[in-house]
Amino acid sequence: MVIEGGGMGVADGQPLTDVELLFRLDRGDTDAFRHLFRRHERTIYRAALAMTRSSWDAEDVVSATFLELWKKRDHVRIVDGTVLPWLLTVASYLAKNHLRAARRYQRLLAKVPLSEDAPDHADEVARMIDALPMTSAVEQALRELNSRDASVLLLCVVRELSVRDAAIALGVPEGTVKSRLSRVKARLRVTLGAIAPRADGAEA
Question: Measured between alpha carbons, how far is 39 from 57 in angstroms, rounded to an integer?
């Protein structure tokens, strides 16, 4: 377990913090894993849904993300007392993998006649994505950017992390985050110019 950005204390009777839960998880505590899952599952699902536009794929991404949490519990990066940035980073990479697989599947499916209509989950997708603080341009960018740049967009713009905290979550130097964020802003300068953080970590 790698703790950065400071931990969080606990008062009697208060819920356990992510730091404490991860400490227990690192020792194989399955109850701690369930608590972390319940705490962050919806946020991860919404982010995955914004990228995949499929409730089924989003559920797969959530499952795979928390599986990574269990498998890599002794290497998880805590940012300012929470595992959420690390989880979002993992989810963004997994969602991108799902998108690549889905495109291959859709190309194959287009060659096969279907006897029944597939269920329409558009309403659920729209409702869940509406709960995220992102514009349609940001949603589109998340789907089109490569996994590294999408992670920076998700952390710095959607979750409003500083460059420093995003670097901790991603496990890369701050300069790498700055360059990726600059690349994203250049691509979406009009839309993101007013909301993406500056290189010093403050908002533009």
Answer: 20
